[in-house]
Amino acid sequence: MKTTAVKEGNEWVLSGSKVFITNGMNANLVIVCAKTDTSLGAKGISLFLVDATLGGFSRGKKLKKLGQHTGDTSELFFDKLRLSEDCLLGELNKGFIHLMTELPRERLGCAIQAIGANDGALEETINYVAERQVFGQSVAKFQNTRFKLAELKAQQELCRSFLNACTEKLKSHEMTTEDAAILKLMTTEAQCKIADECLQLFGGYGYTREYKISRFYADARIQKIYGGTSEIMKEVIARTLFGR
Ligand SMILES: Cc1cc2nc3c(=O)[nH]c(=O)nc-3n(C[C@H](O)[C@H](O)[C@H](O)COP(=O)(O)OP(=O)(O)OC[C@H]3O[C@@H](n4cnc5c(N)ncnc54)[C@H](O)[C@@H]3O)c2cc1C
Questions:
Q1: How many domains does the chain divide into?
Q2: Does ligand 1 lie within 6 Å of residue 162's CB atom?
Q3: Is 58 found in the same domain as 146?
Q4: Domain check: are 76 and 134 in the same one?
Q5: Domain containing residue 9: CATH number
Q6: Shared-domain flag, residues 54 and 36
Q7: Which atom of ligand 1 lies closest to the CA of 227?
Q8: Residue 75 CA, ligand 1 centroid: distance in Å
Q9: 128 and 208 share one domain
Q10: What is the spatial distance between Cα 43 and Cα 238, in angstroms, rounded to a whole number?
């Protein structure tokens, strides 16, 4: 993190940029993480509420992505942007702790997207294989198709069950960082596998944009990356096993 906020009188001066911001093209108010004490590492980070109409705020171009075309993602720039003191969100130098507190909820959101997408991909595929005729019978009649869809359905229901458990824990403020990491890792990895296996059952048509399954496939891929990559989720889980 290179963006800094320096106190000048009773104002903060924000300088830097952030690439990959979901809804960055449309947002009116953004939460920016900035270093308020560069000597303290993660303990010198604070959060700021930034009004996009302020001088010094600008947006980069809309990024061209592999999938999720209905959502915009862009880079944001802060050029000596002046903020009043009350734009500090939460406590000074506690930004990293604030982020760590909220990230599990964001990861649960990724899992909800995954479960919803998987329901859709499975439904599309079950309908398609029942209709598509090859070698005089429907694709649904092949044992491979039945077993494959049964495996995917089983994986989906296990994921849904853990999502429901985590949602209950979130409601009672008991969901841990580890719970959220396990949930995001398993549901988003399952989403990519399910989208891939379902597309396979469509054959060549699955690769065309005419069939929705190709969109499920393209939209799924980012889920293993944003909100913390699968590798970082494994790090979070491993830390709880080894104490660090
Ligand atoms: C479409 C999209 C929307 C996004 N929206 C937002 C947003 O709204 N707000 C926001 O703040 N960010 C957003 N992001 C950023 C996203 O969270 C990051 O891209 C993601 O966390 C990965 O960081 P990185 O791109 O810097 O990858 P890098 O950190 O460069 O990672 C590269 C590779 O190295 C691996 N790696 C990194 N560190 C380790 C490690 N310690 N151990 C093992 N492997 C490691 C990663 O897992 C990955 O495989 C978005 C990104 C995209 C593409």
A1: 2
A2: no
A3: no
A4: no
A5: 2.40.110.10
A6: yes
A7: 17
A8: 14
A9: yes
A10: 23
Check if 231 has its Cβ closer than 6 Å to any atom of ligand 1. yes
Q: Measured from the CB, is residue 222 less than 6 Å from ligand 1?
A: yes
Q: How far is CA 73 from CA 20, 104, 142, 188, in A?
A: 6, 22, 42, 20
Compute, in angstroms, the gap from residue 70 CA to the centroid of ligand 1: 20
Q: Given the CA of residue 63, which atom of ligand 1 is nearest to it?
A: 1
Q: Is 75 a catalytic residue?
A: no
Q: pLDDT of the chain along its 244 residues, tens only?
A: 999 999 999 999 999 999 999 999 999 999 999 999 999 999 999 999 999 999 999 999 999 999 999 999 999 999 999 999 999 999 999 999 999 899 999 999 999 999 999 999 999 999 999 999 999 999 999 999 999 999 999 999 999 999 999 999 999 999 999 999 999 999 999 999 999 999 999 999 999 999 999 999 999 999 999 999 999 999 999 999 998 7
List residues bridging with 83 in a β-sheet.
Answer: 12
Length of the chain: 244
| Claim to verify: residue 108 and residue 51 sit in the same structural domain | no
Per-residue CA distances from 180 to 96, 97, 188 (Å):
17, 16, 12
